[in-house]
Design a protein that fits this description.
84 residues, 1 helix, 31% strand
Length: 84
């Protein structure tokens, strides 16, 4: 059996784009190429699908942080100055 590139719990991205996904594991079947079960949140519910290893790339901590910040809601704050 070939060596796994990703471990359970790691965050990966599809090479074609899309949300960050968590690797849940690999199916019990001996598929070639290695296929991973990934889960992600689409804003309303969790989704789950199988992805071949060559379609995934490991997310760096900077990538994960950048995507989290870019999806955060924008708020306009009013600055109030007080004189004491």
């Amino acid at each position: 059996m070939a060596k796994q590139k990703f471990c359970t719990g790691q965050t990966v991205f599809s090479k074609s784009g899309g949300p960050g996904m968590s690797v849940l594991g690999i199916p019990v079947f001996d598929w070639n190429p290695i296929t991973y079960v990934c889960q992600w949140f689409d804003g309303k519910s969790y989704k789950q699908a199988l992805f071949p290893e060559e379609d995934l790339k490991l997310a760096t901590p900077e990538e994960v942080q950048r995507r989290i910040i870019s999806k955060a809601p924008r708020r306009n704050y009013k600055v109030i100055s007080r004189r004491y």
